[in-house]
Design a protein that fits this description.
single chain, 143 residues, alpha+beta, seven-stranded antiparallel beta sheet, 7 strands, globular
């Protein structure tokens, strides 16, 4: 993803991520100086359904790029091969500006669909994604 990285924005997104009960650690990657993205570890016993023994991960990449910001919010569970995420990028223009994708195993082709948010600030978008992830997506995908 090209565009400007905003250190203040990453501090805010880190704070949002840390406020979730499912999150155990949140770090800047590759380090606190470069801050290319956020990486969070998720407690495998705090997600529904519980997973483990390895911790699922959440990565957040956010960049400003005219005419709009671009982001990738991705969740991956190494125990099950499940992966999902919300992306605002130019990869799938047929789906609109934002799309959601999920893959239940490492070999399956991802399912993609348009996504919309009633909020428009990065912190609120991230919170909405995490609400959907931990409140709907994971439990729906376990059925």
């Amino acid at each position: 993803m090209s565009g400007e990285r905003n250190p203040a924005l990453y501090r805010t997104l880190k704070d949002v991520s840390k406020r979730r009960a499912e999150t155990t650690t949140v770090t800047y990657e590759p380090d606190s100086i470069q801050r290319r993205y956020l990486a969070a570890e998720i407690d495998p016993m705090r997600v529904v359904p519980a997973t483990g023994p390895e911790s699922p991960t959440l990565t957040v990449r956010w960049q400003t790029a005219p005419p709009h910001e671009r982001f990738r919010i991705d969740y991956a569970d190494p125990n099950t091969g499940f992966h999902c995420g919300w992306h605002r990028d130019d990869d799938h223009p047929e789906l609109g500006p934002i799309h959601f994708q999920l893959r239940r195993s490492g070999t399956e082709e991802p399912r993609r669909e348009p996504a919309r948010f009633e909020v428009d600030t990065p912190a609120r978008i991230l919170w909405a994604c995490l609400d959907r992830l931990f409140g709907e997506v994971l439990s729906d995908c376990s059925e």
